[in-house]
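Note to self: user wants both folds in one dump. Writing first protein now.
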Amino acid sequence: MDTKKWIKMALIDFEEYYKLYFQRDLLNFVGQIPVDGNKHYDRNEFNIQYFFLTPQYKYLEIIPHDRQGLFAVALYWTVLVDQTFYSHYRHSYETFQRKTLYPKFIGNCTAPSLMSSECGHHQHPRKILQAINDTADKGNRFDFEREIFKKYENSKTRENIEYFPILEQARQVIKDEIKDYFENHQPEISWTDFWSKCEQEL
């Protein structure tokens, strides 16, 4: 297939996925994760630990395989936008959080206390794209509350998830979404300035 034609198809596919399927896939993905597994946080917070995405666990299988790469890229951009807002516009973050309800991406819960645990620290969203094909990560090490997640451990080998071509093509879709959001919901913030800050985090 002609490269330009493939790129155009990828862009259309991601835009359609992001607008029609991503929210549903995200809710299904998070909805199956035991609430007790995020014990360090309020039960209403939307937290995704690193190992939830790895092949060693079944959580990602709730999403059809042909949408898993799209999901990972959409989640990557969503977390990047959320982290960028918090880092640079913290004074307005409460409004942004209330309107978007974007998830947080954190490390694995590896210890009883929050600050000594990896889940006490937000992870760069590029680790989302690492996690989906990370066959080495063991989740909650030292068997810290492993029983909570044990039934979700995956005994099967998961196919490698391709995402790289989607990642770049999603950029324009997310840029347009950012423009629309700020112009309609928080116009006091320049969407072009915000987008520039997002690009610095890539």
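First done. Writing the second protein, which came from a different request thread.
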Amino acid sequence: MSDDTSAKLNDILRPGQPLPSDDLMISTALDILNHSPHGQQLTDFASVNQISIRIMSTPQPTTYLPESKLVYVGFNRNNPISPSRFVLMLAGILREAQQEMAGIKHPNLHAPMQEHMKVSMAKHEDKVWYMCTVACELNDQGTFTEYKFLDELGKMGHDESLALYLKQERGH
């Protein structure tokens, strides 16, 4: 893979430019994830388990896992998200698929609310921690400096999680 991978996704998601095909956006984001050890683990998981990745139009950026082998990344096509957010959202939803396939599922509808909250919070914390790991691994590489992955995590509302991650995992 060449060093122009980072420029590629930035170029294809440039404001005012027509969006490329969904396949090109997804394959480029997966290429970028492959530069991170934890991201590579997610792309390998997606490949081995034949996870179908789709893009959908939504008013706000979101991800959706209707079944363990089908993930969606959604955003407003008239106001596309930044390349770094797209990569991080893809990492997050692939981690959710991984959780599902590992048997970490939401309780059934009749389970007590406390059980729902406990499982949902644990899954969310694990997903955000994974996104922090991938963001830091990619951020450490000069090739992806312009992506500002750590800044994007903050814009996504994960400031506190990132600060805790950096303190615990990196001693910062």
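Dump finished. Worth passing along: The chain has one domain: 5-170.
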